[in-house]
Amino acid sequence: xNYIGVYVTYISATVLKMSKFKQIKHPxxxxxxxxxxxxxxxxxxxxKNTKMILTxxxxxxxxxxxxxxxxxxxxxxxxxxxxxLQTAVKAGxxxxxxxxxxxxxxxxxxxxxxxxxxxxDNQYDMDDKWILFLNTYKYPTIWFHVWPYAILPRFILExxxxxxxxxx
Length: 168
Fold this sequence. Notes:
By secondary structure, the protein is mostly helical. Helices cover 54% and strands 0% of the residues.
């Protein structure tokens, strides 16, 4: 899982056997999480005789084409945390490993997304920042790395974002 991390949430990164999917009881409990397929992947991986194959190159790729239309904090903080620290742990993945992945992604991919969408015009709802605080207050490293990008005004974040883009 350390190699997969956030990619478990990418629809184009998972190919499932229909027979395995049909074995899941009540998949509708994950409706509205924005990660239905990823919850299903964890359930399937918890089964006996389940194989996971990782490839060096993708078979399908869809990058940066998410149109938004949802609250970034609800999806990438609350629901992603639920996916890793509840569903994955119930599926048998070590809680310490899932917590490490969550914290790593919060300080990396999710932090960068918060910065980007705080500066760029987009279709993401960036209100309800309380969701970020409610789901990360137990993790002091998140306070330093992520919270400033969520609360600082756009005019302060723009030069930071421009500088980060120049480094890439």
